[in-house]
């Protein structure tokens, strides 16, 4: 009996928007850099990961702070 390894699809979320996975070979930090052109606040964001039975969910959270 051979083992079959399969990976869960990744789902990315930021500010209430679901973002498409640009390339499954990219790391989470590379995906964040990819979308930072559209969402500049991703540059200083953190992320949390959650795994459900159907997907690996990554949620980016913008850092809250003040300038100056």
Structure description:
There is one protein chain. The protein has 68 residues and is an alpha+beta fold. It has one domain (10-61). 12% of the residues lie in helices and 29% in strands. It has one helix at 28-35; strands spanning 10-14, 17-19, 46-51, 56-61. A hairpin with a 4-residue loop joins strand 3 (46-51) and strand 4. The longest helix has 8 residues, at 28-35. The protein starts with 9 loop residues before the first strand and ends in a 7-residue tail after the last strand. The mean pLDDT is 90.
- Our count of domains comes out at 1
Low-confidence stretches: none
Q: Mean of residue pLDDT? A: 90
Overall helicity: 10-25%
Span of the ends, CA to CA: 63 Å
Strands of the largest sheet, in order across it? Answer: 2-1-4-3
Shape category: elongated
List SSEs in N-to-C order. EEHEE
Helix/strand/pairing class, anyone?
A: alpha+beta
Number of helices: 1
Number of strands: 4
Main beta sheet strand tally, sense and closure? 4 strands, mixed
What's the gyration radius in Å? 14 Å
Which percent range describes the beta-strand content? 25-35%
SSE blueprint and pairings:
Elements: E1 10-14, E2 17-19, H1 28-35, E3 46-51, E4 56-61
Parallel strand pairs: 1-4
Antiparallel strand pairs: 1-2, 3-4
